[in-house]
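Quick start: what a row looks like.
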Amino acid sequence: MSFNQIMPALGILVAIISAFVPLEWWPLILLAIGLVQGFGAPEEDTTTIVLVVVAAVAFPTIANSLDAIPVVGGYLNTIIDHFAIAIGGYAIAHLVWDLKNRIMPAAAD
């Protein structure tokens, strides 16, 4: 498995665990996973970056409607909300890379 496969899988796994194991550090852990993935493997495709930013905003909104499902709705809401935190870290890393590239462009050959 490559880095680009391990990090999203780790984010999903930690988001699932966080729904069942109470710990106040879950958001920070998930944000760190997203930041590591974003800085470790920066995405070059602009469409994918836009998709990541939209997902970071839209997932929590969609997850809130899952509370209506009896028994499992709260857990699904928590899992998707926490996964959105990891996606948010990924999006923040890309925004930082973009700012860095705009402030300090690559040297022309």
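That is the whole record. The first helix runs from residue 3 to 20. The chain has one domain: 3-103.
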